[in-house]
């Protein structure tokens, strides 16, 4: 009998529970034992935080958002922040403790569900500690190069599109410009997909530096054609020409402070447009709303397929690999390849051409 452990790391995403459900059901069908590690690697650091997963405690979790195991983006065992007796935070490598517990518990495989950061840690365990690891890609940003799609993305786009749809009526009623900030640190997949689907006038993404003058020309063009309002969708990682990314600090916006929390570009754009276009302009941040809620049918099915494929990989001893959607089918790719680079929006892609063809301004002088 094999014993496997599954963890969910990084930001949460709709569909995580569907992966857990699929891994558990597929493992139990093979008469394996399955354990869940709470909050990323916490269960492997402290076995009291391990939970035995059965058909009973995963029943009906597929349609629910979040993860029953919890998650964290501050739990790297190779660089774990730990408070000492003096109350000081020290960074320590506790990876050997994780590996010792993994071996002592008799686990044959670790299924790590996460984005590029979590998968990089999993790959490090595989190469440096010899842990048999299988990765499952998860990110609402859809920015993992090795897979066509990651679960959570479709739900995030649906949430953003619904919000944009609702903003049209209030923007039109007050002749306002509404700026919607969506997630997308290094890639603009959510902004572009929801902006096109939601009928935005302007879409700003990290791949295309923008200038305010182009945005204001689009708003003026709207006015000339009798449209006295506009919708601007901006990814949180978008930036203007000759400016750094916008970061938050104490509720304010600063430019170029990479160590600060990313965000605030929506209000920054709104303030500039308010001046140059002389329009009543408001901004809103969708933020973590995009991570919540029940997964769409597409995300649910993709997550279930990922989970089942990961168990098949464990059965075939295909470790230090990630399951990926390739040409519509489940394939395996080396974790090293999966985390090598982020997937950007190609500047000559069909989506970019579609946006331009239907009159969406991308903030450049195209």
Describe this structure in words.
- The chain is an alpha/beta fold and 366 residues long.
- The chain folds into two domains: 3-151 and 295-326, 3-Layer(aba) Sandwich (Rossmann fold); 153-291 and 346-357, Phosphofructokinase domain (Rossmann fold), CATH 3.40.50.
- It contains twelve helices and 16 strands.
- It has helices at residues 16-29, 42-45, 55-58, 95-104, 116-129, 153-174, 189-197, 212-224, 265-276, 297-315, 335-338, 350-357; strands at 3-8, 33-37, 50-53, 80-83, 89-92, 109-114, 133-137, 177-182, 202-204, 230-235, 246-249, 252-255, 261-262, 281-285, 321-326, 329-334.
- It starts with a strand and ends in a 9-residue tail after the last helix.
């Amino acid at each position: 009998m094999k014993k496997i452990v599954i963890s969910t790391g990084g930001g949460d995403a709709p569909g995580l529970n569907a992966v857990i459900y699929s891994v558990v059901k597929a493992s139990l069908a093979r008469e394996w034992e399955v354990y869940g590690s709470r909050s990323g690697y916490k269960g492997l650091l402290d076995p009291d935080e391990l939970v035995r997963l059965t058909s009973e405690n995963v029943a009906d979790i597929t349609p629910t958002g979040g993860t029953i195991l919890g998650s964290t983006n501050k739990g790297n065992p190779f660089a774990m922040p730990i408070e000492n007796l003096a109350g000081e935070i020290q960074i320590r490598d506790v990876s050997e403790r994780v590996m010792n517990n993994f071996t002592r518990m008799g686990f044959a495989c670790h299924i790590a569900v996460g984005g590029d950061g979590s998968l990089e840690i999993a790959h490090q365990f595989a190469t440096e500690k010899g842990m048999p690891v299988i990765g499952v890609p998860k990110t609402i940003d859809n920015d993992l190069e090795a897979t066509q799609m990651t679960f959570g993305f479709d739900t995030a786009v649906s949430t953003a599109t619904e919000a944009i749809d609702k903003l049209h009526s209030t923007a039109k009623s007050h002749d306002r410009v509404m700026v919607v900030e969506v997630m997308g640190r290094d890639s603009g997949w959510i902004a572009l997909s929801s902006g096109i689907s939601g009928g935005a006038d302007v879409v700003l993404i990290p791949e295309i530096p923008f200038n305010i003058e182009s945005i204001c020309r689009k708003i003026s063009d709207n006015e000339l054609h009798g449209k006295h309002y506009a919708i601007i969708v901006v990814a949180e990682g978008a930036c203007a020409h000759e400016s750094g990314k916008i970061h938050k600090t104490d509720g304010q916006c600063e430019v170029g402070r990479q160590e600060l929390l990313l965000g605030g570009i929506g209000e920054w754009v709104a303030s500039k447009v308010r001046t140059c276009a002389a329009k009543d302009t408001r901004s809103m941040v969708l933020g973590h709303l995009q991570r919540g809620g029940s997964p769409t049918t597409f995300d649910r099915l993709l997550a279930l397929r990922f989970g089942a494929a990961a168990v098949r990989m464990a059965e075939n001893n295909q470790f230090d690999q990630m399951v990926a959607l390739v040409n519509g089918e489940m394939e395996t790719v080396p974790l090293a390849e999966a985390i090598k680079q982020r997937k950007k929006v190609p500047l000559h892609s069909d989506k970019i051409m579609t946006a331009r063809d239907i009159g969406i301004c991308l903030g450049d002088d195209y």
